[in-house]
Amino acid sequence: MAVYTWRGRNTRGELVQGQLEGANDTGIADQLMLMGVAPVHITLKIAKEKKGADPWWERLSQQPVALEDVLIFSRQMHTLNKAGIPILRAFAGLQASATKPAVVAMLKDMQASLEQGRELSVALTKYQPVFGAFYIAMIRVGEMTGRLTEVFLNLTNHLEFERDVRERIKQATRYPVFVMVAMAIALVVVNIFVIPVFAKVFEGFNAELPLITRGLLAFSGMVQTWWPLFFASMVVGVLMFRGYIRTQEGRYKWDGFKLRLPIAGDIIFKATLARFARSFALASQSGLPLPQALSVVAQTVDNAFLGSRILQMRNGIERGETITRCASATNIFTPVVLQMMGVGEETGELDALLFEIATLYERDTDYSIKGLAAAIEPILLTFIGSLVLLLALGVFLPLWNMGQAAMGGAGV
Description:
This protein is mainly α. The protein has helices at residues 25-34, 55-61, 67-82, 87-97, 101-115, 120-125, 128-131, 133-145, 148-203, 211-245, 248-258, 264-285, 290-300, 304-318, 323-330, 335-347, 350-370, 372-411; strands at residues 2-9, 15-22, 38-47.
């Protein structure tokens, strides 16, 4: 494969130019025609495989496809589908406008699958870790119902909500994380460099040191002697924990524990239920059968504990029970939400009520995130103040006693 530079004129007669990859200039011309561009000049620029290039290093340094890339793809596909542009021509245009190599490679592979007669949902299946099961299921429903344009718009709004929640949580936790890291570094520096200096001074006192000082000196000596063991134990512990939460049982228990955390647990719970309500509303609105919709949504919530409750709802619906009764049996929804579900079932407006439930949880999540920093700051200040007080008493109390003793001796 090689890179070609091209110039051509679009449907309005305007001169446009760019670069495309292809086996030869004929293939480039075909791509341009699919894009609605009449080629004027095509020139080979550079081969894709460069001499002396290090493919493994390029793959290692290549940025992966992120949520923002999927969001841009969804928004562009909605616009192109709304304009009536054929899907192959749309993919050719997306390749020409993409700048990230990983995205270009993904679009190129998906276009090859489409050219072989496969559906878009089938082409997306190869990249399920990137798009997710819910995204692919929604695209499949859009293809079956002929509402692919509307599905892309709904997915765009859904992904924007996901991104906004993640960014707000990152912004709220950035300051506490920075403070905790700074305090950890300060503790290491104090125990390795500061306390040992005072330990040498205290050795000349020939007096019994206060309990706090003895504890600090013992801890500092233990850190200096056994720090390789502490570091290795920490690394092994992290690896074992990550391995455990990858198991089905470990993931279930860890996700349940996260929901019980004092401050963050409530935010995670509300954000997850908001994701569930919006995903369920989109799937139901698109015509996906309720049991199948709940099976897909259970993977969308990204929480094994709540996902099991959603699968419990699916099993109840398959037995012929109502959605409200199944939701009530899970013990995860508030009475107000259950009442809204009941009204939606009775009136046949379940989709609209689910969107209202999603909005309700999103507002609660936004309010909780805004108060997250205010809730964490007092805890951080208490922790930092206690730590500084402990260090100050442990280091300066012996000096104070020595000074008092010196003054008393001088007075005698």
